[in-house]
Amino acid sequence: ISDQKPLGCWSVKHGQILTCPVVCNFETHEYIAVHDDKVLRIWKNEDINLDKAFKATLSADVYRIHSLPHGGPLVLFRGGGVRTLDVLLEAPQQEIENFISDEVIRWSGAFMEGQQPVLIFTTEKDGDFFVYVQRPKLSCLHKYKLEQQESAKPVCFTAHVTNRTVTLLCLYSNDSVYQVLIPLQEDTEEEEEEEEEEEVLSKSLLLNLSVSGTVLKGTSLVVLDKDHVAVLGSLAAPGKEPRECLTIWNTKFQTLQTSKELPLGTSGQLWCYEEKFFLIHGKVLTVIMYKCETSSLAAAVGKLKDSQTPDVSSFVNWNTLEDEELVVSFQSQESVALKAESRMNLRSRRSTVAEVQPETLSVGQLLLNLKDASTYMLETKLRQLMAKAPTPDLQATIGCVVTAITDRCKRNPKYYPQSFLQEIVETRDLSYSLCPDLMAVALEKKDMHLLQMCLERFPDIPEEIIYACLKTFLSISEAHLQSIDVDLDSVICYIDIESDDKEFKTEIVENGFRAEMDQDMCDTKIPKESQSRSSGESCPVGLQKAALLNAVLHSAYTETFLLPHLKNLPAQQAILFLRYLYYLYVKCSEKVNTTLPGIRSPTINQIMDWMCLLLDAHFTVMVMLPEAKELLSNLHKFVRAQSRFYSELNKIEGSLQELQRLNHLRESQMYSIEVLEII
After folding, report:
1. Which residues form the Nucleolar protein 11 N-terminal domain (predicted)?
2. Whole-number Å distance between alpha carbons of 532 and 535
């Protein structure tokens, strides 16, 4: 989220429509989607084409899929029927019962009660609202009617299950929250006989959403814990324009704990997951961490000591902070504390820093104190800080440490603790998001080894930084790289060391290619000297540059965002990079398993993806450049040779499988000669 970096993107065909939210199966790490109401799709993160993913056409329209961490996915149909995903996949066309033919589902939620999943959904018919509680694994379904409210209707619902009791919270149009308690029951014979009689659920007023004449017109409601709820809506004060706000309420003491105005507007939807709020603010997704503390009267009326007002901060803008905005210890006056990411939130107060005892200093305060310390003192204190940091806050603390170092590097161009930074990156599990300025400083200092380490270890590097590293690696001279310490583990096992400007070559034809074969496959006549230079048999770059380029190949990227940057790569550098990719492609093809030896060596898929990217970005330029013509011709010839070879293998695949089957069936003998004719 911090880098605006999509990690995966899948599209349905033109004319198809996703008809319910996509969920993740926690047990299998698969995505589950439904398009056109009845078509179920299941795929994994590495799958690229959604059209080729698993497909099952169901017999009834799906309303929603709910995924539980320990209960598996539940599929709720528009008719009220519920199936676990496993049962549904056994017979996708199985008949689904219809309980609510004249009713429309308005809300649904899934929960775990012990080891059993519980699914709750509400329906509406002619102004009446009904509640269904279903336990699929027990084939248990109960229907209730919600007590009517004069001149007010439910706007949204939420629920939680505790001690075999469902607590349903209803936000009504009269700016009030009502509570309904539903005990989980077991089916009995008496209940089956009286199934036609619907029990009417009485509700109790839980909360009035008004403070001193200001009324909150709520649009979305979520439960935080047994004493706190969050409501997203518009605050309407007399004589003033309504303002959209995120509010936290204490239901035990009927008080507004805290609120934050959202001037850019919202979609009206609020999600809550693992102590994080998710909401659309303007055009950005805002993520807010919170923590629920034990409810107390002092907290409810705002009388806790050492209070500070929390702020709402979007992850999108979290790295545009001043030096003073390093993290400080955070106690909120509210029982529910809204926090941004742990590395940064509140502006520290310099006037109080000197009065705090050293052993009670927060990370932010300590770093502010060390802002002007000597280099030795700074690194000593930072090492101590990382060693003593508690496990839950370790990553955030290390991120603060790296940020403090990069800030000093910016202020003092002569300061650059290369070995210290390399040690942190090598020994700590960091990411780009935790230290967004680190790679920018390394690029400025031309620290190739640190950039290599970051590319190999950081999972979330923006495409702009990946391109900057690639351009830097390609532009730096081989002579300069000879004096730089670079990790060569990814190249030392497959790049031959040249001797007297000649490389030792071995003819390998395991995958059906030889330099002399298939000369008729390309119309372009290539001189022998050019062939030896461009055929991929000699590495076009030195060991150090090859190792750095391999680090780029390992970086995760999104093609849509990387392609515009690659188009800015100078033509000569693009040709050099393509020559190296071609060399790697030939080296991979020399092996039966198409795998290069060594540690963190690039895979055949990575090589092919980057070749396609580079050709997409520079194809017109390369076609026009004379020096690229020979390279493209050889690449074309090699790919065609590979295609023919694999095409021939496909032709005899059936015969080889049959031969393997016969070998298993045949009794072993001491000696035999057999002639097998392959037709």
Report:
1. 1-291
2. 6
